[in-house]
Amino acid sequence: MSKITLAEAAQILNNNDRFVLATHIHPDGDAIGSTLALMHALKKAGKQVEVYIDDKAPRIFSFLPGYELIKRPPENLPSAKLTADRLVILDANIDRISRVKDMTDAKVLNIDHHISNDEAADELYLDADRAAAAEIVYEVIKEMGVAFDSDIAVCLYTGIATDSGFFRYASTKPFTMRAAAELMEYDVKPNIVSEATEEKSFATVKGMAAALSTVELFAAGKAAGIFLDLPLVETLETTEGFIDNVRIIEGVDTAVMVKCQEANVCRVSMRSKRLDVAKIAVKFGGGGHIRAAGCTLNMPFAEAKRVIVAELTEALAALYRQ
Ligand code: AMP
Ligand code: MN
Ligand code: MN
Q1: Could you report the per-residue pLDDT of 135-173, keeping only the tens digit for each?
Q2: Are the C-beta atoms of residues 81 and 59 closer than 8 Å to each other?
Q3: Atom of ligand 1 nearest to the CA of 278
Q4: Residues 219-261: pLDDT tens digits?
């Protein structure tokens, strides 16, 4: 592994010709926005680019130009590998792109903003102070000397807006606002982006009501959780944004959602005001940011709930004892 500078990352992109781009499973607006923006910029610079995500790309992102070009690895991977000069991984480290890493033997260039990045890539440009990977891609594209256009701009804006909670989270800096303002000059409509990315089906809104009705306070009121068992999860199209209705509870530092995806596989999402939830996520093999992190617990739902409630109760007691 070697850590590289922004200028070196831009140089690698400018000096090579064939790229496979990939991002994390359960792709969010930053994953898809930063990846598609870099795809557009590389194509504009005359490069060959393919984008692979080993998961469904949620329909709410279908308004992004280039969405239809995202490929999913086939169930049985072909034995012939994709030839490329670089596999570029955005908004994640290698282990979160799932089977895309088996599709090519190309050298890995990783561009990320997660403090928990495992630094396993051949070349890593990491800036954990950036609110979104799309902020870094904004800088990289400038450094490459590729001019912004409306396709690049809407993808970058979507990544930045969604990962910063539409400019509300602590990660939002003057840089975030300046980048977004500049991108708006290329015909980005913030209302279109928020309307598209926040859209939920009627069934999902009904499901959200059921999910929210599981809310519990614990850790002496410093934490609140929603706990979604498999039968409930099976009725839901998405759980995106559910946790935002939990972290607003008065007195709550940390919000958690435990979601049973299949027997013995539970996804945990955490959001906090003070507690370092990345540290907790990493302890369980996951990762993220200080105030937004996640992990997967391979255990039955009741046990996952018990484990995460105990861990957060202890961490919050220690934090608020200080
Ligand atoms: P989520 O709760 O899924 O929205 O994730 C919150 C943040 O933590 C995002 O930045 C994710 O990319 C990150 N994250 C979630 N799950 C994991 C994981 N298993 N490994 C590393 N990072 C994760
Ligand atoms: Mn992401
Ligand atoms: Mn991100």
Answers
A1: 999 999 999 999 999 999 999 999 999 999 999 999 999
A2: no
A3: 8
A4: 999 999 999 999 999 988 889 999 999 999 999 999 999 999 9
Cα–Cα nearest to 49, from 87, 78, 80, 23: 87
CA of 130 to the centre of ligand 2 (A): 12
Would you say the CB of residue 287 lies under 6 angstroms from ligand 1? yes
Cα–Cα dist 264/297, whole Å: 8
For atom 10 of ligand 1, the residue with the nearest CA is 288
How far is residue 322's CA from residue 319's CA, in Å, rounded to a whole number?
A: 6
Ligand 1 proximity of 296 Cβ (cutoff 6 Å): yes
Question: Is the minimum distance from the CB of 288 to ligand 1 under 6 angstroms?
Answer: yes
> Can you read off the two tokens belonging to residue 63?
């308004």
Exposed/middle/buried for residue 112 (C-beta within 10 Å: 0-12, 13-18, 19+): buried
Name which residue sits closest to atom 15 of ligand 1, judged by CA: 294
Structure tokens at 178: 């300046």
Q: Which atom of ligand 1 is nearest to the CA of 296?
A: 19
Kindly give the number of the ligand 1 atom that is closest to the alpha carbon of 93.
21
Whole-number Å distance, alpha carbon 231 to ligand 1 midpoint, is: 23
Burial 71-83 (b: 16+ CB within 10 A, else e): eebeeeeeeeebe
Ligand 2 center from residue 289 Cα (angstroms): 10
Alpha carbon distance 16, 78 (integer Å): 25
Decide if 252 contacts 217 (C-beta within 8 A). yes
Q: What is the pTM of this model?
A: 0.94
- Tell me the C-alpha distance between 130 and 112, whole Å: 9
Distance (Å, rounded) from C-alpha 255 to C-alpha 245? 9
